[in-house]
Design a protein that fits this description.
By secondary structure, the chain is of the alpha+beta class. Helix content is about 30%, strand content about 25%. Among the domains are: about 90 residues, Dipeptide-binding Protein, Domain 1 (Dipeptide-binding Protein, domain 1); about 180 residues, Dipeptide-binding Protein, domain 3, CATH 3.10.105.10.
């Protein structure tokens, strides 16, 4: 009996510090490094922490309440009413109301909004649409439509930097953007005191700094996931959420559908996947990952150079220009695609500098929801194709996708994960549905 008591005491003594280590601490500064601009739209990490949307996308891909607590649709999804959350304030103390929400949304998209009109009606925001918008709640949870106070601005801050989020903008100096905890956040105060985001850091420098203990969170590009793990970095990765896609102009010689189809068949997805992106993610010829729809296998991803030559029909179009949005890996991918197209008889050059005309653009499009209908709409919006997706059944979604893909203006190539490496101080890091770090929930092991 005495032995059991002693063992129990030892186990209790050991368990106490373990429990204390796993309990979140308030305080501390999280040091983050990014390659680009954390305030860019969409996808900027700083914007995600400073601004909320009317809704938010949950981990299951559905719209959840945020600045709006509830919503309802009328007239077969032609009219939507969103009831605002009471008692919410912007960082400067201004109360959230329907008027400043409408002003923010109007400033974001002006005459190019996906809805026809938006109005302030008491404590509600009302959207009207010429066409049905069944996915409007999910759309408003996307990064593009986050609410900022348009009537005021912090001196020296990015435009639209006064929001309602868990952190508020407090400084930008020498490429370091500083965000401080919002003590009055309607979601509750975040654990961290400060987010310190170092901008325009090369991936090489980010890896050196995380390995040397000089930062706490860095980006890990898909093509370097294997290297990061071999270096024994602690990596948090998402499912495939970024679509590598080629957009093709339908003007000039490329107004010819057969030429666009020839280009689509000439691209070697396998080489991109195996060589450049180091077998991360998945090859696709579909707009959505295979696990979301279950029908992506119906779109062939195989290269068919003979068919590409046949569709070109001996026509040699004028020289084409391909551009890539992003860093060196995207540029390398564009060069590989240019070689593929030359094999099919096209004269293709990779753009340098700021070209006057672009025929093909290699882009990374972010999937904002893991639900098929709003997920497809998010990809189409990112590609500049504002096409509402009405059907919800797999058959209806397949019909829409087939119509889009057979226009050969948007060519899916790969679906890639997003990943981040973290230091040993970081606790409870989770990635959102689009692979963005949810830093409002993070705490630091050594916080006071």
């Amino acid at each position: 009996m005495l032995r059991q008591i002693v063992i129990s005491c030892i186990l209790a003594a050991v368990a106490r510090p373990i429990s204390a280590r796993t309990r979140p601490h308030y305080g501390g500064t999280l040091r983050v490094e990014v390659e680009g601009d954390p305030w860019q739209r969409p996808g900027g990490l700083a914007r995600r922490m400073v601004l909320h949307g009317l809704t938010a996308i949950g981990l299951d891909g559905t719209a959840r309440p945020a600045l709006a607590v509830e919503w309802k649709s009328e007239n077969n999804d032609h009219r939507w009413q969103f009831q605002l959350r009471p008692g919410v304030h912007f960082h400067d103390g201004t109360s959230l109301n329907s008027t400043n929400v409408v002003a923010s949304l109007t400033a974001i998209c002006g005459a190019d909004c996906p809805w026809t009109a938006v109005h302030a009606v008491g404590t509600s925001v009302v959207f009207t649409c010429d066409s049905p918008m069944p996915n409007l709640p999910a759309l408003l949870g996307g990064d593009e439509y986050r609410i900022a106070l348009t009537s005021a601005a912090n001196p020296g801050s990015p435009p639209g930097s006064i929001g309602t989020g868990p952190f508020e903008f407090t400084g930008l100096s020498n490429g370091v953007l500083t965000l401080s905890a919002n003590d009055s956040s309607w979601q509750g105060r975040p654990f961290l005191d400060v987010l310190e985001i170092h901008t325009h850091r090369s991936i090489r420098d980010q890896f050196l700094d995380i390995s040397g203990g000089r930062t706490d969170l860095v980006e890990v590009p898909s093509e370097q996931l294997r290297q990061a793990r071999e270096q024994r970095l602690t990596v948090v990765a998402s499912p495939p959420v970024s679509l590598l896609a080629l957009t093709i102009s339908d003007s000039g010689s490329l107004a010819n559908l057969n030429l666009r189809a020839s280009i689509a068949l000439a691209v070697d997805r396998g080489a991109l996947f195996n060589v450049i992106f180091q077998k991360q993610g998945e090859i696709t010829a579909s707009l959505l990952p295979a696990e979301i729809t279950g029908y992506s296998f119906l779109f062939t991803a195989d290269r068919d150079l003979n068919k590409a030559h046949e569709l070109r029909g001996g026509v040699t179009p004028p020289g084409l220009t391909i551009a890539a949005e992003g860093g060196p890996t995207m540029q390398l991918s564009a060069q590989r695609i240019a070689l593929n197209l030359r094999d099919a008889g096209f004269n293709v050059q990779v753009a340098t500098g700021v070209p006057q005309h672009i025929d093909l653009t290699l882009r990374l499009l972010r999937l904002e929801s893991n639900q098929p209908q709003p997920g497809m709409e998010s990809i189409l919006r990112a590609a500049g194709l504002a096409i509402p997706v009405q059907g919800q059944t797999p058959a209806a979604l397949y019909t829409v996708e087939r119509q889009i893909l057979f226009s050969h203006m948007l060519i899916p190539l790969l679906y890639l994960p997003r990943a981040f490496a973290i230091s040993g101080r970081v606790r409870d890091l989770r990635l959102g549905p689009d692979g963005t770090p949810e830093l409002a929930r993070v705490s630091l092991e050594d916080a006071p």
